[in-house]
Amino acid sequence: MKKAIACLTLATLLAGSGASAQTPPGTDPPKGGASAGVDLATFLARHRTRIMRADADHDGRVSRAEWAAWWDARPGKGPYDPAGRFRAIDADGDGFLTAEEVDATSTKRFARLDADHDGRVVRAERPCRAK
Question: How high is the pLDDT of residue 8?
Answer without folding.
Answer: 44
